[in-house]
Amino acid sequence: VYGTFLNGDSISDAKLTDTGVIVIGNEGNGISAEVEKSVTDRLLIPSYPEGEPTGESLNAAIATAITLAKFRGI
């Protein structure tokens, strides 16, 4: 079970599997504490360029698109 968090491991470096569940939180509150208990792999969508300060979070739809693209190897 993958979840996106501001304190996760960079999705750019993560070893992603062919199967699994992806959890995306809402823009204001992220993933609830209850659901977070089920997450086994914490992912971060890094800023671009990495290391440079940018917005704190992404729209949930955009975060989902980026995450799915990474799982497809795009």
Reading the helices and strands in chain order gives EEHEH
Approximate helicity band? 10-25%
Provide mean pLDDT, rounded.
89
Going by CATH, the architecture would be 3-Layer(aba) Sandwich
CATH class: Alpha Beta
CA(first)-CA(last) distance = 20 Å
Strand content: 15-25%
CATH superfamily: SPOUT methyltransferase, trefoil knot domain
CATH topology title: Alpha/beta knot
The strand count comes to 3
Which stretches are low in confidence, meaning pLDDT under 50 for 5 or more residues running?
Answer: none
Shape: globular
Q: The biggest beta sheet, please?
A: 3 strands, parallel
Which secondary-structure class do the elements indicate? alpha/beta
The tally of structural domains comes to: 1
What does the radius of gyration come to? 12 Å
Lateral strand order in the biggest sheet: 2-1-3
- Count of helical stretches: 2
Q: How do the strands and helices of this protein lay out in sequence?
A:
Blueprint: E1 2-10, E2 22-23, H1 33-36, E3 41-44, H2 60-72
Parallel strand pairs: 1-2, 1-3
Q: In a nutshell, what does this entry contain?
A:
The protein has 74 residues and is of the alpha/beta class. It has helices at 33-36, 60-72; strands at 2-10, 22-23, 41-44. The chain has one domain (2-72): SPOUT methyltransferase, trefoil knot domain (Alpha/beta knot, 3-Layer(aba) Sandwich).
